[in-house]
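hey
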């Protein structure tokens, strides 16, 4: 039993990037699926696949690297809110990651979205992580 599955998800991706793996396999949950979709839409991962054959299910993520320099698309992946200390922000206090070059993933009442989408809809929520 894992006490913080989102931190485990981010750590698995971070470790796979550091080891220069092409694929990483992670146990699935609805929140992890939403975060994966955002990472794909913003261009941080190459592709993903949800395998729901087993009871818990798995997420297979193809990591993205630059074709010439072999540098990863994900430089930093930082957990902000944790089970012991939840971090919430109102619509006017949503953080900007690297002055808008990075993405903050926010869990709102409207679902999981980026900081830019939440700012546009004028809603706040729990800051899950920063990606750049």
């Amino acid at each position: 039993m894992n006490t913080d599955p989102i931190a485990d998800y981010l750590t698995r991706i971070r470790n796979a990037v550091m080891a220069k793996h092409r694929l990483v396999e992670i146990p699935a949950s609805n929140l992890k699926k939403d975060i994966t979709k955002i990472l794909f839409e913003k261009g941080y991962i190459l592709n993903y696949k949800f395998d729901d054959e087993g009871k818990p299910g798995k997420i297979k993520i193809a990591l993205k690297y630059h074709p010439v320099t072999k540098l990863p698309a994900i430089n930093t992946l930082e957990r902000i809110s944790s089970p012991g200390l939840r971090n919430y922000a109102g619509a006017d206090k949503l953080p900007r990651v690297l002055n808008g070059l990075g993405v903050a993933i926010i869990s709102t009442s409207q679902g999981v979205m980026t900081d830019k989408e939440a700012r546009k809809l004028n809603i706040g929520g729990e800051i899950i992580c920063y990606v750049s």
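The longest strand covers residues 45-51. The beta strands are 23-27, 45-51, 58-63, 77-79, 88-89, 103-108, 111-114, 125-131.
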